[in-house]
Amino acid sequence: QVELVESGGRLVQAGDSLRLSCTTSGDTFSSYSIGWFRQAPGKERAFVAAISVSRITEYADSIKGRATISRDNGRNTMYLEMNSLKPEDTAVYYCAANQALVVPDIVAARYDYWGQGTQVTVSS
After folding, report:
1. Are 68 and 17 in contact (CB under 8 A)?
2. What whole-number distance in Å separates Cα of residue 49 and Cα of residue 59?
3. pLDDT in tens, 25-64
4. Which helix (H) or strand (E) holds 49?
5. Residue 50, phi then psi, degrees to nearest 5
6. Which has more confidence, 82 or 25?
7. d(CA 65, CA 114)
C-alpha cells in the first residue's frame, strides 16, 4: 500500500510559478512510476505529466514547455513545477503511482494509488 500526499497548491496570479509536491511514506517509492493529473470543475480528470522509474518524462500538450516533473527518491517526493500559469490551469491536482508501469503513462485508470489532491487556483 502506498499513501500519497500532495502539497503546494494555492491561489496565484496568471504568469506566476508554482511547485507542487507529492510525498509518500512508502519505502519503495523509487520503484513506482508517478503521474500528475488535474480535474477542473465540471470536467474529467486529465493527464498533466508523468515520470517513470528510469526518469523518462511525458507531458500533456496543454502544459508542455511550462512544466517540469522530477523525483527525489531519497526524499520519497515527486515535484511538478509549473511556470507561466494561466487561469485554465485552475484545478485540483492529484498525484498517482503505479509499480507495474515501466514507462510514463498518461492513462489515469492504469494508476493504482492516488493522493487526495491539492487545489491550484490561477486568477487573471
Report:
1. no
2. 4
3. 866 788 999 999 999 999 999 999 999 999 999 999 999 9
4. strand 46-51
5. -150, 155
6. 82
7. 25
Interatomic CA distance for residues 92 and 61, integer angstroms: 18
In SS3 terms, 55-124 reads as CCEEECCCCCCCEEEEEEHHHCEEEEEECCCCHHHCEEEEEEEECCCCCCCCCHHHCCEECCCEEEEEEC
Residue type at 108 in one-letter notation = A
Per-residue burial over 80-102, b = 16 or more CB atoms within 10 Å of its CB, e = otherwise = bbbeebeeebbbbbbbbbbeebe
Residue with cell 510514463: 104
Give me the pLDDT at residue 22, please.
96
Q: Which of 54, 80, 77, 60 lies closest to 68 in space, CA to CA? A: 80
Return the bridge partners of 50, or none: 35, 58
Asked whether the predicted pLDDT for residue 65 surpasses 80, the reply is yes
- How far apart, in whole angstroms, are the C-alpha atoms of residue 100 and residue 74? 20
Residue with cell 517540469: 68
